[in-house]
């Protein structure tokens, strides 16, 4: 009956045949959309939802539904994720009542399943549901009954309906995780079964019964109900009206179910992207501990471990020391050893070539092959070092568990008092292809035979001729082919034409700086799809040096708080860098916009920036000074994780260097005093800039505001210092209720900031120490009283 009423209401809407009417009203037979970037979507009556093509790569399109009025056009449903539509493909409501996605040659790419025929019209509704309706105004098919990874308010899932997480943040093909209301009435979350396992359930609702439904109501509640309407289990906490907020609940690619809201007023016209905000406890709260697979990798890939990070405790998949990701674009793919494994040749045990790194509270529970009792930590280390099969050992309570590759179910558990003892080669540069003495002897014998043979002489002549030919070809094509730079970093090389097409002719500008302009692009060849392409202004001079510095510096870094360099173009006069796309823009937009960001999100950002800088200063092979820390150079991803960007003016230091002399670099207002005093520059200049940034995060305002009204508050660091001396830190956050209720942390952060902006670099802490103080792991010393308090503005 509801479907009939809905159909009657829809049919009453006028159906003119113009393109504009097709965009906003019911879709008549013969209506179509073409994947060419123009007229590529149908809107709901209010314009809040769109159905059509989203460009996902060079010449590739995804048929999808998305929120139209928010800046990132968040996708809530998709159809052809494993078979993207090429440019020129068409979705058509045919004259004979079928709904088909076809490629430019007419071949069918997708159609609704089960097969639907006899369609009279279609409509994109304001609920986010796209419906196909017959002449009796009954829904023949709707996206609400065929969800992908997202559910929306008013949506109901019956028993047997499955929701499937996507593969990664920007790859919409099917991933590992699913949930479904089963025939037994239980809502079950499970990892996709493989050929060894029938099922891998990691959360269950315990609501056994018949006729169970999953409902997402207009008040923002997600719950399970019995056939008679009785609520059996509520999955979300709190209620949020759909009047002022967009809402969605999604099974994300990390296997966690989360509910989000987005203020309707916070669109592109507000001048700042706010992103989606989590409003309920995720399911499960800690997926790291929820998937103890006997066979399989666990929550993360093999040889990696799962940990919860940040204020919102999101799962991260990290590699242990001595291991690197298999796929730099997908941290859940697992890790591999980046050193040659220990030889099992008894004549050369290599015990002295390995050392042990420690990870507290970390375990790989399902990889044991030997257990030893009555052990000390030292004897456990020695046992693993002496055993060529041992990749790591877990020591806990006098017991030593040896584990070998591949490691599975890796996770951090703060309640686990054990410790992971990870064996790594002391010299990580050792080639993985190094052989044993017998092999080397064999090669010498073979070489001797070849040298004495006429066959070898003939081969040598052919090789010489080939090398001469290659040299000639190299001179001819030198100007046209890409120059191979830093291939060891694993970054991709792109042609200029590829990046020109990916950015649609460098059409959508994201920002610009002294050395070039950044454009939004879409690349099918990378897992993230969306990228940021930085086009350097010229080939010569400082921009050429900047290009080489960025490729060298960023290409070798790997940290969650650094923007990832995906590739580059070094072709002819063209110099371009390809970065991961950061959907929430800069920290400057986020921090200094109309709405005040959450105090706890600012805490998370401060800690993230500090961790990123600590990594650059201490954990890179070549220590890096950023030289330009400011809110504009800190970007926010879809989860509002802070990531340092723009290493173009970074100063690289060798591992045994601590200081260097250079010209003034950076931005006025964040520069340390030594820049202007012809003093040696060290990593302490970044500490100073971080101190300025930290007071901006505390007070949620810029360091220098001539319009502040009160003269004493124009220069923020001066005002902060005065408030600290007068023990009046509350006035810094008096309009911020969250911060006002957390004054102990506010005072600690103020003291840390004042330590960072000391005139004397020797009095500033290292970023590693700053990180520990921010996290509360070490006490914060009282900032010394400076002889003169200088503010750079």
UniProtKB/TrEMBL annotation:
Q: What region holds the Protein kinase domain?
A: 504-790
Q: What is this enzyme's EC?
A: 2.7.11.1
Q: What is its main location?
A: membrane
| Amino acids binding ATP | 534
What is the annotated localization of this protein?
Membrane
Which InterPro entries does the UniProt record give? Bulb-type_lectin_dom (IPR001480), Bulb-type_lectin_dom_sf (IPR036426), G-type_lectin_kinases/EP1-like (IPR051343), Kinase-like_dom_sf (IPR011009), Prot_kinase_dom (IPR000719), Protein_kinase_ATP_BS (IPR017441), Ser/Thr_kinase_AS (IPR008271), SRK-like_kinase (IPR024171)
Show the GO MF annotations.
ATP binding; carbohydrate binding; protein kinase activity; protein serine kinase activity; protein serine/threonine kinase activity
Q: Where is the Bulb-type lectin domain?
A: 18-145
Q: Which domain of life is it from?
A: Eukaryota
Q: Identify the stretch annotated as signal peptide in this record.
A: 1-21
The membrane topology of this protein is: Single-pass type I membrane protein
Q: Name one GO cellular component term.
A: membrane
Transmembrane feature ranges: 443-469
Key words of the record: ATP-binding, Disulfide bond, EGF-like domain, Glycoprotein, Kinase, Lectin, Membrane, Nucleotide-binding, Receptor, Serine/threonine-protein kinase, Signal, Transferase, Transmembrane, Transmembrane helix
Stated family: Belongs to the protein kinase superfamily. Ser/Thr protein kinase family.
The molecule here is called: Receptor-like serine/threonine-protein kinase
């Amino acid at each position: 009956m509801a479907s009939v009423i809905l159909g009657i209401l829809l049919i009453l809407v006028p159906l003119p045949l113009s393109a504009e009417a097709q965009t906003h009203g019911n879709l008549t037979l013969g209506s179509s959309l073409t994947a060419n970037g123009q007229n590529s979507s149908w809107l709901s009556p209010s314009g809040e939802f769109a159905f059509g093509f989203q460009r996902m790569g060079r010449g590739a399109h995804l048929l999808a539904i998305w929120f139209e009025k928010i800046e990132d056009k968040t996708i809530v449903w998709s159809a052809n994720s494993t078979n993207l539509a090429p440019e020129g493909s068409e979705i058509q409501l045919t004259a004979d009542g079928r709904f088909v996605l076809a490629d430019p040659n007419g071949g069918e790419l997708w159609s609704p399943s089960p097969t639907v025929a006899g369609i009279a019209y279609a409509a994109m509704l304001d609920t986010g549901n796209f419906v196909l309706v017959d002449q009796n105004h009954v829904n023949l098919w709707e996206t609400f009954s065929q969800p992908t990874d997202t559910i929306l308010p008013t949506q109901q899932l019956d028993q047997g309906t499955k929701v499937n997480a996507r593969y990664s943040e920007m790859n919409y093909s099917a991933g590992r995780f699913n949930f479904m209301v089963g025939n037994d009435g239980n809502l079950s979350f499970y990892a996709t079964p493989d050929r060894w396992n029938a099922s891998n359930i990691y959360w269950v609702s315990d609501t056994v019964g018949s006729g169970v439904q999953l409902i997402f109501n207009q008040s923002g509640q997600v719950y399970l109900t019995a056939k008679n309407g009785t609520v059996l289990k509520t999955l979300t906490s709190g209620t949020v009206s759909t009047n002022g907020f967009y809402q969605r609940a999604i099974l994300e690619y990390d296997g966690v179910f989360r509910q989000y809201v987005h203020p309707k007023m916070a669109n592109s016209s507000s001048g700042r992207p706010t992103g989606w905000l989590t409003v309920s406890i995720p399911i499960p709260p800690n997926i790291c501990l929820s998937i103890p697979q006997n066979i399989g990798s666990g929550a993360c890939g093999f040889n990696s471990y799962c940990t919860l990070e940040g204020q919102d405790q999101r799962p991260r998949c990290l590699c242990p020391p001595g291991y690197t990701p298999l796929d730099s674009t997908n941290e859940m793919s697992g890790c591999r050893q980046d050193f040659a494994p220990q030889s099992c040749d008894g004549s050369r045990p290599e015990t002295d070539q390995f050392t042990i790194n420690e990870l507290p509270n970390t375990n790989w529970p399902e990889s044991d092959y030997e257990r030893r009792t009555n052990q000390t930590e030292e004897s456990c280390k020695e046992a693993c070092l002496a055993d060529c099969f041992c990749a790591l050992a877990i020591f806990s309570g006098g017991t030593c568990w040896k584990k070998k590759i591949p490691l599975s179910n890796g996770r951090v558990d703060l309640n686990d008092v054990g410790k992971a003892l990870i064996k790594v080669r002391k010299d990580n540069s050792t080639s993985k292809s190094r052989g044993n003495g017998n092999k080397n002897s064999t090669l010498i014998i073979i070489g001797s035979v070849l040298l004495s043979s006429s066959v070898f002489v003939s081969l040598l002549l052919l090789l010489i001729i080939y090398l001469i030919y290659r040299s000639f070809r190299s001179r001819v094509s030198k100007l046209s082919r890409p120059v191979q730079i830093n291939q060891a970093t694993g970054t991709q090389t792109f042609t200029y034409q590829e990046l020109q097409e990916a950015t649609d002719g460098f059409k959508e500008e994201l920002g610009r700086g002294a050395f070039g302009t950044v454009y939004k692009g879409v690349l099918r060849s990378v897992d993230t799809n969306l990228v940021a392409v930085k086009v350097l202004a010229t080939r010569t001079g400082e921009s050429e040096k900047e290009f080489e510095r960025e490729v060298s510096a960023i290409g070798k870094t790997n940290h969650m708080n650094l923007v990832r360099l995906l590739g580059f173009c070094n072709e002819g006069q063209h110099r371009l860098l390809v970065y991961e796309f950061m959907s929430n823009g800069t920290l400057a937009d986020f921090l200094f916009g109309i709405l005040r960001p959450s105090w706890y999100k600012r805490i998370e950002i401060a800690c993230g920036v500090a961790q990123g800088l600590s990594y650059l200063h201490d954990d890179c092979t070549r220590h890096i000074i950023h030289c330009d820390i400011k809110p504009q150079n800190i970007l926010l991803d879809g989860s509002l994780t802070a990531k340092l960007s723009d290493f173009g003016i970074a100063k690289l230091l060798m591992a045994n260097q601590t200081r260097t002399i250079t010209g003034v670099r950076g931005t006025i207002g964040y520069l340390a005093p030594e820049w202007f005093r012809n003093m040696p520059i060290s990593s302490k200049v970044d500490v100073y800039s971080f101190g300025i940034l930290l007071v901006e995060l505390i007070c949620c305002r810029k360091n220098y505001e001539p319009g502040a009204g009160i003269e004493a508050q124009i220069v923020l660091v001066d005002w902060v210092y005065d408030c600290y001396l007068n023990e009046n830190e509350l006035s810094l956050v008096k309009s911020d209720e969250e911060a006002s209720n957390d004054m102990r942390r506010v005072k600690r952060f103020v003291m840390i900031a004042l330590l960072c902006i000391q005139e004397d670099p020797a009095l500033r802490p290292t970023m590693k120490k700053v990180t520990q103080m921010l996290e509360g792991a070490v006490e914060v010393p009282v900032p010394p009283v400076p002889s003169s308090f200088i503010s750079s503005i």
